[in-house]
């Protein structure tokens, strides 16, 4: 059987585990050939660090894609993470049109959390991201990103299952047939994800232990694991379980070691169990 191939398009932080430095090893560990287009290079990620360097690589995206076209490259999956500008959104739309073929597109619309847009994004950026999500097969927003893309008020922790299920269906209405909402919690000691498949109309949840604190890069760990599981043929409910459990194990190891949270989580030593979960 031919090896599966994915491409992930997002920034690379030289220190602080997130984005490409998380996606490349996790997807590769799943046995999937993993290609990358870096959208920017930073000395560290921007969460909790100051004085970091930043080099925008937007101008390199089109030449890379053009060269790949001459090689007739095909992908089983295209996965986008943090995209820093409207121009990058436009270029991703062109990339999807050129390279999707029979593969799938997964978008993690990384732009906000806890009710607030990340720095550097204008108020109209979520509408641009929502339009791009119309080209995806699967999207993986958190509750803040979901509300912003739908033009709705962020409700904080005051929500129930009816609200979550309404969001899932509205997000699918943007275009993607499958939606995963992350950071879902109905109890203070549990957190997980919800998923919706418009093809079946089915909604599923999976929860596991909540570890107190904020750990950088966990969204990227979850999304990379989720994509890996889907490419490996897992159902969406099975995939959110695998991704949640892998992320939790990584967080617990990091918390036990009292590692600086902004450095990212220790997903590397969780990879053996992750790989087993894909069998």
How would you describe what is shown here?
By secondary structure, this protein is of the alpha/beta class. It has a single domain, classed as Ribokinase (UDP-N-acetylmuramoyl-L-alanine:D-glutamate ligase). 39% of the residues lie in helices and 22% in strands. The chain is built from nine helices and eleven strands. A nine-stranded mixed sheet has the order 3-2-1-4-5-8-9-10-11, with helices on both faces. The longest helix is centred in the last third of the chain and has 21 residues, at 236-256. It is globular and about 50 Å long. The model has no long low-confidence stretch (mean pLDDT 97).
In short:
The protein has about 280 residues and is α/β, with parallel strands linked by helices. It has a single domain (about 5-275), classed as 3-Layer(aba) Sandwich (UDP-N-acetylmuramoyl-L-alanine:D-glutamate ligase). It has nine helices and eleven strands.
């Amino acid at each position: 059987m031919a090896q599966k191939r994915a491409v992930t398009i997002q920034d690379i932080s030289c220190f602080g585990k997130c984005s490409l430095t998380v996606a490349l090893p996790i997807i590769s560990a799943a046995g999937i050939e993993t290609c990358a287009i870096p959208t920017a290079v930073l000395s560290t990620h921007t969460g909790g660090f100051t004085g970091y360097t930043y080099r925008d690589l937007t101008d390199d995206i089109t030449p890379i894609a053009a060269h790949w076209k001459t090689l007739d490259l095909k992908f089983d999956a295209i996965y986008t993470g943090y995209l820093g500008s409207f121009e990058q959104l436009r270029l991703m739309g062109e990339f999807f049109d050129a390279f999707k073929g029979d593969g799938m597109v997964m978008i993690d619309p990384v732009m906000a959390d806890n009710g607030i847009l990340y720095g550097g994004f204008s108020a109209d950026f979520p509408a641009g991201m929502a339009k791009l999500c119309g080209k995806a097969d699967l999207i993986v927003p958190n509750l803040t990103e979901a509300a912003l893309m739908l033009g709705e008020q962020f409700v904080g922790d005051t929500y129930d299952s009816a609200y979550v299920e309404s969001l899932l269906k509205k997000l699918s209405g943007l275009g993607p047939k499958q939606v995963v909402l992350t950071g879902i919690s109905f109890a203070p000691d549990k957190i997980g994800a919800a998923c919706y498949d418009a093809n079946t109309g089915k909604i599923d949840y999976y929860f596991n232990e909540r570890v107190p604190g904020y750990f950088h890069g966990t969204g990227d760990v979850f999304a990379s694991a989720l994509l890996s599981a889907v490419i490996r043929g897992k159902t969406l409910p099975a995939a959110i379980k695998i991704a949640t459990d892998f992320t939790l194990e990584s967080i617990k190891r990091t918390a036990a070691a009292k590692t600086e949270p902004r450095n990212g989580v220790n997903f590397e030593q969780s990879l053996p169990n992750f790989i087993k979960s894909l069998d």
